[in-house]
Specification:
Elements: E1 2-11, E2 17-29, E3 32-47, H1 56-72, E4 83-89, E5 96-102, E6 104-106, E7 109-113, H2 124-131, E8 134-139, E9 142-150, H3 153-166, H4 169-176, E10 183-188
Antiparallel strand pairs: 1-2, 2-3, 4-5, 4-8, 6-7, 7-10, 8-9, 9-10
Protein backbone atom coordinates (compact mmCIF):
# COMPACT_ATOMS: atom_id res chain seq x y z
CA UNK A 1 0.00 0.00 0.00
CA UNK A 2 1.09 3.57 -0.52
CA UNK A 3 0.04 7.10 -1.28
CA UNK A 4 0.56 8.80 -4.64
CA UNK A 5 0.55 12.63 -4.65
CA UNK A 6 -1.11 14.42 -7.57
CA UNK A 7 -0.83 18.20 -7.54
CA UNK A 8 -2.69 21.10 -9.06
CA UNK A 9 -2.49 24.87 -8.58
CA UNK A 10 -5.73 26.83 -8.49
CA UNK A 11 -5.63 30.61 -8.93
CA UNK A 12 -8.25 32.58 -7.03
CA UNK A 13 -9.02 35.95 -8.63
CA UNK A 14 -7.56 38.75 -6.53
CA UNK A 15 -6.82 36.51 -3.55
CA UNK A 16 -3.62 34.68 -4.48
CA UNK A 17 -3.55 31.01 -5.24
CA UNK A 18 -4.13 27.67 -3.63
CA UNK A 19 -1.84 24.70 -4.06
CA UNK A 20 -3.98 21.57 -4.02
CA UNK A 21 -2.36 18.24 -3.38
CA UNK A 22 -4.54 15.23 -3.99
CA UNK A 23 -3.48 12.01 -2.34
CA UNK A 24 -4.62 8.87 -4.05
CA UNK A 25 -4.46 5.61 -2.17
CA UNK A 26 -2.69 2.81 -4.04
CA UNK A 27 -3.44 -0.81 -3.21
CA UNK A 28 -1.06 -3.57 -3.99
CA UNK A 29 -2.33 -7.12 -4.38
CA UNK A 30 -0.39 -10.30 -4.98
CA UNK A 31 1.05 -10.16 -8.49
CA UNK A 32 -0.54 -6.88 -9.57
CA UNK A 33 -1.12 -3.28 -8.53
CA UNK A 34 -4.61 -1.83 -8.37
CA UNK A 35 -5.53 1.83 -7.89
CA UNK A 36 -8.67 2.75 -5.97
CA UNK A 37 -9.64 5.83 -8.01
CA UNK A 38 -12.87 6.46 -6.16
CA UNK A 39 -11.15 6.84 -2.77
CA UNK A 40 -9.39 10.19 -3.03
CA UNK A 41 -8.45 12.33 -0.06
CA UNK A 42 -7.92 16.01 -0.68
CA UNK A 43 -5.53 18.22 1.22
CA UNK A 44 -5.28 21.91 0.53
CA UNK A 45 -2.49 24.29 1.32
CA UNK A 46 -3.32 27.95 0.90
CA UNK A 47 -0.58 30.06 -0.63
CA UNK A 48 -0.82 33.79 -0.01
CA UNK A 49 0.81 35.21 -3.12
CA UNK A 50 3.47 33.82 -5.42
CA UNK A 51 6.47 34.52 -3.18
CA UNK A 52 5.33 32.47 -0.18
CA UNK A 53 7.59 29.51 0.49
CA UNK A 54 6.19 26.03 -0.03
CA UNK A 55 4.87 24.25 3.02
CA UNK A 56 6.97 21.38 4.33
CA UNK A 57 4.90 18.59 2.76
CA UNK A 58 4.90 20.17 -0.71
CA UNK A 59 8.64 20.82 -0.41
CA UNK A 60 9.33 17.21 0.57
CA UNK A 61 7.21 15.87 -2.28
CA UNK A 62 8.91 18.13 -4.80
CA UNK A 63 12.31 16.99 -3.55
CA UNK A 64 11.33 13.33 -3.85
CA UNK A 65 10.38 13.82 -7.49
CA UNK A 66 13.60 15.73 -8.21
CA UNK A 67 15.71 13.02 -6.55
CA UNK A 68 13.96 10.31 -8.55
CA UNK A 69 14.46 12.21 -11.84
CA UNK A 70 18.09 12.99 -10.97
CA UNK A 71 18.94 9.34 -10.38
CA UNK A 72 16.94 8.08 -13.36
CA UNK A 73 18.57 10.54 -15.79
CA UNK A 74 22.24 10.60 -14.79
CA UNK A 75 21.98 13.79 -12.76
CA UNK A 76 19.80 15.73 -15.21
CA UNK A 77 16.42 17.03 -14.08
CA UNK A 78 14.28 18.49 -16.82
CA UNK A 79 13.59 22.19 -16.24
CA UNK A 80 16.25 22.55 -13.52
CA UNK A 81 19.75 24.00 -13.46
CA UNK A 82 22.53 21.47 -12.72
CA UNK A 83 22.06 19.92 -9.29
CA UNK A 84 23.85 17.77 -6.76
CA UNK A 85 22.23 15.47 -4.23
CA UNK A 86 23.46 15.91 -0.68
CA UNK A 87 22.80 13.02 1.71
CA UNK A 88 22.99 13.96 5.38
CA UNK A 89 21.94 12.64 8.77
CA UNK A 90 19.14 14.51 10.53
CA UNK A 91 20.47 16.72 13.32
CA UNK A 92 17.84 15.51 15.80
CA UNK A 93 16.53 12.28 14.30
CA UNK A 94 19.78 10.84 12.96
CA UNK A 95 17.77 9.61 9.96
CA UNK A 96 19.12 9.84 6.42
CA UNK A 97 17.99 12.93 4.52
CA UNK A 98 18.60 13.73 0.84
CA UNK A 99 18.52 17.30 -0.48
CA UNK A 100 18.80 18.45 -4.11
CA UNK A 101 21.03 21.53 -4.17
CA UNK A 102 22.38 23.84 -6.86
CA UNK A 103 25.58 22.43 -8.30
CA UNK A 104 28.35 24.87 -7.41
CA UNK A 105 31.71 23.34 -8.46
CA UNK A 106 34.66 24.60 -6.45
CA UNK A 107 38.01 23.20 -7.49
CA UNK A 108 37.71 19.41 -7.39
CA UNK A 109 34.73 19.53 -5.03
CA UNK A 110 31.48 21.44 -4.48
CA UNK A 111 29.90 24.13 -2.33
CA UNK A 112 26.60 23.88 -0.49
CA UNK A 113 25.03 27.34 -0.22
CA UNK A 114 22.37 27.60 2.50
CA UNK A 115 20.45 30.43 0.84
CA UNK A 116 16.86 29.15 1.25
CA UNK A 117 15.90 31.82 -1.29
CA UNK A 118 16.84 34.60 1.12
CA UNK A 119 14.49 33.41 3.87
CA UNK A 120 15.16 34.72 7.40
CA UNK A 121 16.10 31.23 8.70
CA UNK A 122 18.63 28.69 7.50
CA UNK A 123 17.41 25.55 5.71
CA UNK A 124 17.07 22.39 7.80
CA UNK A 125 20.04 20.76 6.11
CA UNK A 126 22.29 23.52 7.52
CA UNK A 127 21.72 22.13 11.04
CA UNK A 128 22.21 18.58 9.80
CA UNK A 129 25.67 19.50 8.46
CA UNK A 130 26.66 21.20 11.71
CA UNK A 131 25.64 18.13 13.73
CA UNK A 132 26.81 15.46 11.26
CA UNK A 133 29.37 16.84 8.76
CA UNK A 134 30.05 13.47 7.08
CA UNK A 135 27.90 13.45 3.93
CA UNK A 136 27.50 11.80 0.55
CA UNK A 137 27.45 13.88 -2.64
CA UNK A 138 25.98 12.75 -5.97
CA UNK A 139 26.92 14.64 -9.13
CA UNK A 140 25.68 13.33 -12.47
CA UNK A 141 26.71 9.64 -12.31
CA UNK A 142 29.42 10.15 -9.65
CA UNK A 143 28.94 9.55 -5.94
CA UNK A 144 31.55 10.40 -3.28
CA UNK A 145 31.94 10.72 0.48
CA UNK A 146 32.71 14.18 1.81
CA UNK A 147 33.04 16.22 4.97
CA UNK A 148 31.07 19.47 5.11
CA UNK A 149 33.05 22.37 6.53
CA UNK A 150 31.36 25.70 7.27
CA UNK A 151 33.40 28.49 5.71
CA UNK A 152 34.04 31.80 7.48
CA UNK A 153 35.74 35.11 6.82
CA UNK A 154 37.64 35.60 3.58
CA UNK A 155 37.34 31.93 2.68
CA UNK A 156 33.55 32.20 2.84
CA UNK A 157 33.61 35.48 0.85
CA UNK A 158 35.65 33.91 -1.98
CA UNK A 159 33.41 30.85 -2.08
CA UNK A 160 30.22 32.94 -2.03
CA UNK A 161 31.56 35.12 -4.87
CA UNK A 162 32.19 31.93 -6.88
CA UNK A 163 28.66 30.71 -6.08
CA UNK A 164 27.25 33.98 -7.45
CA UNK A 165 29.08 33.46 -10.75
CA UNK A 166 27.39 30.04 -11.03
CA UNK A 167 23.96 31.21 -9.82
CA UNK A 168 23.57 35.03 -9.78
CA UNK A 169 20.34 34.85 -7.72
CA UNK A 170 22.45 34.15 -4.63
CA UNK A 171 23.37 37.87 -4.59
CA UNK A 172 19.67 38.79 -4.55
CA UNK A 173 18.96 36.23 -1.84
CA UNK A 174 21.66 37.80 0.35
CA UNK A 175 19.98 41.21 -0.04
CA UNK A 176 16.64 39.75 1.14
CA UNK A 177 17.91 38.53 4.49
CA UNK A 178 19.77 39.92 7.49
CA UNK A 179 21.61 36.64 8.07
CA UNK A 180 24.89 35.97 6.31
CA UNK A 181 24.11 33.10 3.95
CA UNK A 182 26.21 30.14 5.12
CA UNK A 183 28.48 28.35 2.67
CA UNK A 184 29.86 24.85 3.24
CA UNK A 185 32.80 23.30 1.43
CA UNK A 186 32.07 19.64 0.69
CA UNK A 187 35.61 18.26 1.00
CA UNK A 188 36.13 14.87 -0.62
CA UNK A 189 37.33 12.24 1.80
CA UNK A 190 40.61 10.56 0.84
CA UNK A 191 39.08 7.17 -0.01
CA UNK A 192 36.41 8.66 -2.34
Amino acid sequence: MGIRPVRSVVTIKGNGSMLCIFYQEKRQQIGKRQHKDKNLDFYFTTAKGENQAMNDNAFIERNLRVIEDFRANGGNVDGWAPLILLTTKGAKSGQTRIYPLMSVPYGDTYLAVASKGGAPKNPLWYYNLLAHPDVTVEVENEKFEATARLLTGEERERAFAKAITVFPNYAEYQKRTDREIPVFLLERRAHS
